[in-house]
Amino acid sequence: MGAAPISWYLWLSAVLFAIGAAGVLVRRNLIVMFMAIELLLNAVNLTFVAFARALGATQPRYVEPGADLVAHPTYCVRFKGNKFFPDDLPERLRYRMSFDAGKDLELGVPLRLGDTVTLRATLHDVYEKTGRSGGMVFVVVRQTLTNQRGEMVAVMDNRLMYRAES
Question: What global pTM score does this model have?
Answer without folding.
Answer: 0.62
